[in-house]
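Researcher: Sequence recovery benchmark, item below. Answer with residues only.
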């Protein structure tokens, strides 16, 4: 006689609960995919910055820059970065970090780093033998012309 014209409250609550469970499962995976994308972006940009530092070294009488800001502008040939430095994808507002050994002005070793996906890692120092010291565990992503790494708590 009378046909069903809609869903009952119980049916609607069950559908909402199932959707909420699916969203709860998907969000952490989406966050992980975002971090993986940012890591890939940071690694690519760090390689570009490293190429720019090495190009600066070749074209500036075998001298490494004392700051990354020296890599931009019309005076650098070839200009690999344009007029602005890329920003760290894990920070969004700051550029990548740059640390050099303590032997300035004759800098031999450097490290360019991103704070990484963790709690804000960084490179605390680069020694005159190329040893790179990190802080905050290993969440820091970096490239360096030194060959070793030391993680400090």
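Model:
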């Amino acid at each position: 006689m009378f046909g069903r014209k809609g869903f009952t409250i119980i049916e609607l609550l069950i559908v909402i609960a199932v959707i909420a469970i699916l969203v709860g499962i998907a969000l952490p995976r989406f966050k992980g995919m975002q971090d993986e994308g940012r890591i890939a972006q940071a690694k690519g940009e760090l390689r570009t910055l490293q190429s720019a530092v090495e190009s600066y070294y070749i074209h500036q009488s075998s001298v490494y820059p004392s700051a990354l800001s020296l890599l931009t502008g019309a005076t650098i040939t070839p200009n690999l970065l344009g007029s602005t430095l890329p920003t760290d994808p894990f920070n969004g507002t700051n550029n990548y970090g740059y640390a050099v050994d303590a032997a300035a002005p004759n800098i031999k070793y450097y490290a360019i780093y991103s704070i990484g996906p963790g709690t804000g890692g960084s490179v605390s120092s680069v020694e005159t033998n190329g040893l790179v010291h990190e802080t905050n565990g290993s969440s820091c992503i970096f490239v360096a012309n030194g060959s070793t790494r030391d993680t400090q708590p």
